[in-house]
Amino acid sequence: MARRSDHSREQLYTLALGAAERIVEADGLHRLTARNVADAIGYSPGTLYNVFENLDDLILHLNAHTLDLLFETLSQAPVTGAPDRDIDTLLDGYLEFLLGHPGLWAALFEYVRPDGAGLPDWYQLKIARVLGLLEAALAPLFGKAETDQLTHAARVLWAGLHGIYALEAGGKLDVVGNDTFRDMAKTLTRTFLAGLRHGAREAGHE
Amino acid sequence: MARRSDHSREQLYTLALGAAERIVEADGLHRLTARNVADAIGYSPGTLYNVFENLDDLILHLNAHTLDLLFETLSQAPVTGAPDRDIDTLLDGYLEFLLGHPGLWAALFEYVRPDGAGLPDWYQLKIARVLGLLEAALAPLFGKAETDQLTHAARVLWAGLHGIYALEAGGKLDVVGNDTFRDMAKTLTRTFLAGLRHGAREAGHE
DNA sequence: ACCTGAACACCGTTCAAGT
DNA sequence: ACCTGAACACCGTTCAAGT
After folding, report:
1. Are residues B55 and B34 in contact, defined by beta-carbon separation less than 8 angstroms?
2. pLDDT at B206 over 70
3. Protein footprint on strand C: which nucleotides are under 7 Å from a CB?
4. Model confidence, pTM
C-alpha cells in the first residue's frame, strides 16, 4: 500500500526535524534512529529517505537549524564597540542558549562526519555567520589592515569555548560545582582579551 | 565447544586492546565493534565479555592507555622554569603525539559516556596527571597561595587546546591550509600566557 | 572455568510491490 | 509519484550448551 500524501515534502521535512529535535533533547543523539523518527511522525522508515539522503543528512540539517537558532539569539545582542562588554554579552547569550538546549548543543559537536567528508558550504556559511558576530565584537582591538589576525583570533576564541563545553559536558575534567563551565569560559575570554591587548600580537605586526 | 585457554585473562586483555588500537587507528572509532575485535584476535564475541564489562568499558580502557602514552611522552620534556619555553615544549610534544596517533586521539574525545555516567576515578587520575604537567609549567606565573587559580588556568588552557583540535579535526572550522591547527594552538597559548601576566588576574587577588 | 555460537532485540538502508 | 514493509547485512549483549 502507499501514496498517502497527507503531507507535502516540506511538511515532512519540518515534521521530521521537529521529531528529531525532541528525541535528541530528551534522550540524546544516540537515540536518534531512522525508525524512531519515522514512528514519531507516523510514517515508515523508508519515507525519510525520500526527504533526506540518509540519517547523517538528517542530523546535518538538525545541526544547521541549531546554528540558525544560535545566530538569531546572538545577533539580537547590541554592539557597543567596547570589546570586553560586547564579548561578555555574547558569552552570556551563548551560555544561555546552550544551557537551554543542552541536547541540541551536544549533538552539534558530538556528530562526526562519516569518512573524512567535510561539511558542505551551506553549512560552513552558518558557522561563519556566528563567527562574524565574534569578529565584530573583537574588531576594535585590531587595526584595519589586520583582518586576518581578527578572524584568526575569533576562531581561536570560539574553538576554545567549545573545548571547555565539550570537556565539561563529557565529564572529562574532574570538575566540582555547577557553575564551573561559566567560570572557565569567563577566564578564557578575559585572559584572552587581556593577552590580545598586551604584547602577544607583536609577531603579527609588520 | 569451549575451554581453549590459549591465553590468560591478562593476555586476552592486551590482545584485545592491541586489536582495538589497530582498528581505531586504521578505520576510526565507528568501526570498532565487538565482532571486529573478536575476529581480529581469533575469539568469539562472547569472550570479550569475560574480560570487559561491555564495549564501552573496552573503549574506556583504550582511551586510558592513550592518556598513559601521552603522559609518558610529555613527562620526558625538561622543565626549565620559564613558562613560555616550557609551555612551548609541552605544546610541541602534544602536537607531535596527536598527529602521530590521530585515530586514538580522536577516539579519546569522540567517545561519549552512556547516559550521564561520569568517568571512573582511576580514569580521572590519568587526566589529572597530564594536567599536572601543564600546571608545573604555568606555576611560576602564580603565587604560592594561588594554587586554585593555577589549576583553573591549566584546565582552561587544556580545554581550549582540545577545542581547537576538535573543531579542526571535525572540519568544523572552514579552515584552509595544513598547519592551521598548530597556528591556532600557538595563538591560544601565547595570548593566554600574555593575558595571565597582564591584568586579567586582578579579580583573583585578595 | 572458560569459551562458543546461536539467539534476541535492535540498527541503516534498499527496493519490489502496491495505490 | 509517493509510501510501505519486508529484506539484507549488520549491531551489542546474553546465555545454554559444551569441554
Report:
1. yes
2. no
3. 1-7, 10-19
4. 0.92
